[in-house]
Every structure is written in C-alpha cells, then in structure tokens.
C-alpha cells in the first residue's frame, strides 16, 4: 500500500547561488570596502605619535566600519563556503600584493590585511544552533606564504610583536593550506571576479495600444516636416519617377472611376483604411514605426475629393 507524501507546512527558504560570491557584484564591492578599511587603518596609525597600539586601532576601525557583522552575511552552508573562500582569498592577495597608493606605506596595508584575515578566521562562530559552516583552512600559494613569513622583518619595532603573535596563532591552528605558486594559477576559479555583470538600462515603454509622449512628439514632427515639404513643392511620390508605370496606372484609375459604382469604390477605400489602421495598431504594440508613413498619407487622401485613387498624381 502506497502512502501519499504529506505537504510541508514550512515555506522553502530562497538560497543565493554560490557563484554570486565569485562575480563582480560581490568581489568589486568587497574589495572596495577592504581598501577603505586598510586606508583608514593606515591613516590613523601614521598619526604622529600613533594614538594607541596597532591592533587596538585596527579593532576599533573593524567595529566602526561594521565588519563585526560580516558573519551574518551568509548562513547557508554552500553559499557561505563560497563567501568565506572569496573573503580569505582577497585578504591573502592584499597581504602578498598590497594595492599601490601614492604617499602610502604599503607595509601598513599588508599588516592591515593580515589583521583582517586573522580577525575573520578566529571570529567564525563555533557554537551555534543550527550549526553554521566553518572554514578550517585558508588556501595560500607557496610564494604568498613566503611573503607572509617575511612580514615581521619589514615592520617597525613597535609593531613586530603584534605581527609575530598573529602569525603564530594562525600557524599553530594549521590555518593555511599550501597550494602551488601564484604564477601557476592554482585557485578555483582562476581569476576574481570570475564573471562580470553589468547593469543593462531598462527602456521605458508606453502602454499597449497607446502612444507615449515621445511617439506623439515624433509623429507631430513628421507631420510638420511633410507640410513644409508640400509648401515648398517637393516630396513627390516615388512612383512619379516611373513614367510608364504612372501612365498605365492613371489609365486604369480612370477606367475604374468610369465603370465601378462610387459606393463600391467607397467600400473598398473603407476596407483598405481599416486594414491600414489594424497594421498600425500591431506595429505600435511592438514598438515599431513600420506602416506609419503610409497610414498618414492614406488618411490625408481619404478625406480628399479624389479619395485613395488620388494618391498617384500625374506630372
């Protein structure tokens, strides 16, 4: 005997695609925030004399900029793994290859990135309900790892013990996972951002079956241009250039006018105008102007004494 599956009373929670954290939407914004953090740390520490110890300055800036809430950015396992992987990767890159800023001490940017990596790694929630995914290892190319070990020899004496303490804690916790050198492109994805997303402007469209202000303005300008051309004696119909075709058409038009009752001609004209208007509605709905010129000419001719047959004129 089969059992029916009971519907769930809990709504599905929308999940963010992990690829988002490798895209330009996240990577560019995160990098800008990190550079702002490092620049502020650099500026405050270079005051003469420094107001406090290096790590105390960094902690206050970390809180002031709202970085202490970073772990609440993503709580779902798969997206959180991608989120932390990208964060640590950007930190490691800024430690080994600090951004160039004129009149700035690049070593302070490296130290700030090291403090950021240390703080993010050791503030990962270890006790939570439900349990939150935690990244235990930070991938780092072997040449970046060598640059990391060289940092204590590059800093001033008043900052050396802070750098040594932070590095010692990370090494004792086996935080680093050594991967091949950076020139071999060992990361996955190879480049950050992995995908570039650009904003595409949405064109405003008028309501279906109605002309918006822009369409009405263009139509008014077109009518004005035609009136000016007629006043100057220009803008002849293209068919006027073909004398043989024109003569043949004029003869046929006269024959129809002489033999076909006027009410039949009027009915044919009404049907033609109805079809032209339906075409105009369809093209307007699709945002096209095809057929508009012909409809304007036909409407002008329909109210004239000669009707639609007067569209073709003799020289």
Automatic annotation (TrEMBL):
Q: Which GO terms describe its biological process?
A: snRNA transcription by RNA polymerase II; snRNA transcription by RNA polymerase III
Family annotation (Pfam families): SNAPC1 (PF09808)
Instruction: Tell me which stretches of the chain form a coiled coil.
Output: none
Question: What GO terms are given for molecular function?
Answer: sequence-specific DNA binding
Q: Name one GO cellular component term.
A: snRNA-activating protein complex
Question: Which InterPro entries does the record match to this protein?
Answer: SNAPC1
Instruction: List the PANTHER family hit by this protein, alphabetically.
Output: SMALL NUCLEAR RNA ACTIVATING COMPLEX, POLYPEPTIDE 1, SNRNA-ACTIVATING PROTEIN COMPLEX SUBUNIT 1
Name it: Uncharacterized protein
The uppermost taxa in this organism's lineage are: Eukaryota, Fungi, Dikarya, Basidiomycota, Agaricomycotina
């Amino acid at each position: 005997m089969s059992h029916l599956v009971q519907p769930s009373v809990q709504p599905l929670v929308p999940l963010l695609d992990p690829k988002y954290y490798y895209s330009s939407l996240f990577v560019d914004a995160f990098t800008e925030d990190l550079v702002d953090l490092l620049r502020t740390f650099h500026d405050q520490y270079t005051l003469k004399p420094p107001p406090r110890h290096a790590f105390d300055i960094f902690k206050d800036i970390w809180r002031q900029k709202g970085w202490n809430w970073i772990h609440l950015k993503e709580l779902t396992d798969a997206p959180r793994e991608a989120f932390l992987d990208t964060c640590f990767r950007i930190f490691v890159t800024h430690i080994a290859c600090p951004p160039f800023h004129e009149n700035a001490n690049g070593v302070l940017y490296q130290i700030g990135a090291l403090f950021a990596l240390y703080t993010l790694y050791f503030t990962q929630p270890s006790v939570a309900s439900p349990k939150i995914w935690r990244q235990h290892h930070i991938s780092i190319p072997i040449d970046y790892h060598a640059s990391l070990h060289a940092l204590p020899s590059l800093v001033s004496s008043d900052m050396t013990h802070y750098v040594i303490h932070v590095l010692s804690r990370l090494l004792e916790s086996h935080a680093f996972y050594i991967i091949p050198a950076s020139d071999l492109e060992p990361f996955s994805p190879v480049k950050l951002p992995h995908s570039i997303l650009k904003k595409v402007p949405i064109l405003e469209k008028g309501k279906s079956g109605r002309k918006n202000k822009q369409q009405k303005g263009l139509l008014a300008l077109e009518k004005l241009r035609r009136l000016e051309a007629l006043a100057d004696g220009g803008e002849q119909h293209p068919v006027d250039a073909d004398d043989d075709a024109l003569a043949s058409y004029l003869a046929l038009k006269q024959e129809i006018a002489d033999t076909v009752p006027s009410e039949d001609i009027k009915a044919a004209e009404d049907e033609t105008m109805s079809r032209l208007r339906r075409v105009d509605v369809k093209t307007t709905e699709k945002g096209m102007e095809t057929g508009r010129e012909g409809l304007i000419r036909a409407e002008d001719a329909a109210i004239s004494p000669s009707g639609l047959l007067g569209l073709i004129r003799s020289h």
